[in-house]
From TrEMBL:
Pathways involved: Amino-acid biosynthesis
Keywords in alphabetical order: Amino-acid biosynthesis, NAD, Oxidoreductase
GO molecular function: (S)-2-hydroxyglutarate dehydrogenase activity; NAD binding; phosphoglycerate dehydrogenase activity
Name recorded for this polypeptide: Probable 3-phosphoglycerate dehydrogenase
Organism: Serendipita indica (strain DSM 11827) (Root endophyte fungus)
Length: 482
């Protein structure tokens, strides 16, 4: 991979004054993430506190940095990305080209060279060919959960961090599970289908309140823990099983083994990632270990449950019902595609009573879409403006605390380089005659990223630091923010 030397990234002091006077320089325009990761939270708390004025007596306001003359930075947004995200980028002074559809590889190769950032959903493929044509590209935002539409390794080698929004829909999934618990317990799916067919079937046999019943949560992460709180508010007793020890919320209780959870729960719900260990984690043996007449819910990943084994357990009455939102093979488009050609057992599953089937909609709400738009647009502008890679999926996560507004003549060095011995020594030699206020570096695979805030630098110093670091052997891209 050839070295990239940032031709942008340094705004001469003569231009800084006018930039700082634009409305986009309002401290309120500084990115605030809603990512629930600890590091992001600390980052945000710091930034929010320093901006809100609520703790003005203890925290100095932070300086708004500018990587470019704001009229120069261009973003390409494809696949109908939310207007909220467009508004956010425009508020930062970026130029935005917005398109409702995905672009083909050829179209991208032809046009991506003019853009500094791109926002996509799942249909646009960012391949090696596209990345090679993206001579100015600094970052990629996936306005969705997954990132496998991007060649992450090639992007990292080109110095391009990729951001997504993995947890924006946790609440939406947890709420759907609550709805499914009640629906299964009251056989709502069947009653509704009967009424649509003109059949009045008023029954109470086999229908239960959920109050006092036990919910067993497998995987107590973002979704599992949200669900725990909601279920307790419904009067349920909550048990959970996780591979790591986690502080329970409310009165929930962690159990030592999966078997214990299965044997004590009236409802079992899965919230684990797809891993070799979780593939087929619920099969005949586990279903047999569940209470007779209990219910299974899977909104996690399709391969976690062995569906033919589930069908047998439902047919035998071992389970009284199931709700399934995710499947080992899912259709690529909406339409009448959920059939035995897709999965050999589809018709066996759809013919069973008290089985709620949904087309992977656990996280599909307007609120989740809006939060994805906010989170990814803020991650992109935080990288473009401040160099922070917190939340990047293919890059070392590096950030520095903000430069205070009253700290003059500071510059932030953002140096993406190959992960080789001797790089830090070389960079520190270049910075040796300056006061390095703070510095942080981390690596991931072949890529390393160094951020450093340098005090007391003149305009000539900044140009020299930029040119000398950019000329080092391991340099991939160096940007200076002032
Ligand atoms: N249906 C949907 O639309 C939808 C939407 C969002 C997320 N999801 C899926 O839901 C799942 C959970 O998402 P999340 O955001 O809560 O993830 P998370 O990473 O926050 O939590 C996952 C939890 O599972 C635990 N875990 C991992 N392996 C385990 C094992 N073998 N046994 C028990 N626990 C294990 C982890 O320790 C972690 O606490 C993921 O698979 C995600 O892809 C589905």
């Amino acid at each position: 991979m050839s070295k990239r030397v940032a031709i942008h990234g340094f705004t001469p002091a003569s231009q800084q004054h006018s930039l700082l006077n634009t409305p986009t320089d309002s401290p309120r325009s500084v990115a605030v993430s809603i990512s629930p990761t600890t590091s992001s939270n600390l980052h945000n708390i710091f930034r929010q506190n320093s901006l809100s004025g609520s703790s003005a007596s203890t925290i100095r306001p932070s300086k708004v940095l500018h990587p470019f003359a704001t009229t120069e930075i261009r973003l390409l947004l494809l696949e109908n990305i939310s207007q909220g995200a467009v508004a956010h980028f425009k508020s930062q002074g970026f130029q935005v080209d917005w398109f409702p559809k995905a672009w083909s590889e050829d179209e991208l190769v032809q046009k991506i060279g003019q853009y500094h950032a791109i926002g996509i959903r799942s249909k646009t493929k960012i391949t090696e060919r596209v990345i090679k044509a993206a001579s100015k590209l600094l970052c990629i935002g996936c306005f969705c959960i997954g990132t496998n539409q991007v060649d992450l390794l090639t992007a990292a080698k080109a110095g391009i961090p990729v951001f997504n929004s993995p947890f924006s829909n946790s609440r939406s999934v947890a709420e759907l599970v609550i709805a499914e618990i009640v629906s299964l317990s009251r056989q709502l799916g069947d009653r509704s289908r009967e009424m649509h067919d003109g059949v009045w079937n008023k029954v109470s046999k086999g229908c239960w309140e959920v109050r006092g019943k036990t919910l067993g949560i497998i995987g107590y992460g973002h979704i599992g823990s949200q669900l725990s709180v909601l279920a307790e508010a419904f009067g349920m007793r909550v048990l959970f099983y996780d591979v790591i020890n986690i502080m329970p919320l409310g009165s929930a209780r962690q159990v030592e083994t999966l078997e214990k959870l299965l044997s004590e729960s009236d409802f079992v719900t899965l919230h684990v990632p797809e891993l070799p260990e979780t593939t087929g984690m619920i099969s005949s043996k586990e279903l047999a270990a569940m209470k007779r007449g209990s219910y299974l819910i899977n909104n996690s990943r399709g391969k976690v449950v062995d569906i033919p084994a589930l069908i047998s357990a439902l047919k035998s009455g071992q389970l009284a019902g199931a709700a399934i939102d995710v499947f080992p093979s899912e259709p690529g488009a909406n339409g009448p595609h959920f059939n035995d050609q897709l999965n050999s057992w589809c018709s066996a599953l759809t013919s069973l009573p008290n089985v709620i089937l949904t087309p992977h909609i656990g996280g599909s709400t307007e609120e989740a879409q809006q939060m994805i738009g906010e989170e990814v647009s803020q991650a992109l502008s935080r990288y473009l403006n401040y160099g922070s890679t917190i939340g990047a999926v293919n890059f070392p996560e590096v950030d520095l605390r903000a430069i205070a507004a009253d700290e003059k003549n500071f510059v932030r060095v953002c140096h993406v380089h190959a992960n080789q011995p001797g790089v830090l020594r070389q960079v520190n030699e270049i910075l040796a005659s300056h006061n390095v206020e703070k510095q942080f570096s981390d690596s991931k695979g072949d890529i390393a990223y160094l951020m450093a805030d340098i005090a007391d630098v003149s305009e000539a110093d900044i140009q020299s630091i930029h040119d000398r670091i950019s000329a080092t052997r391991a340099n991939i891209i160096t940007r200076l923010l002032a």
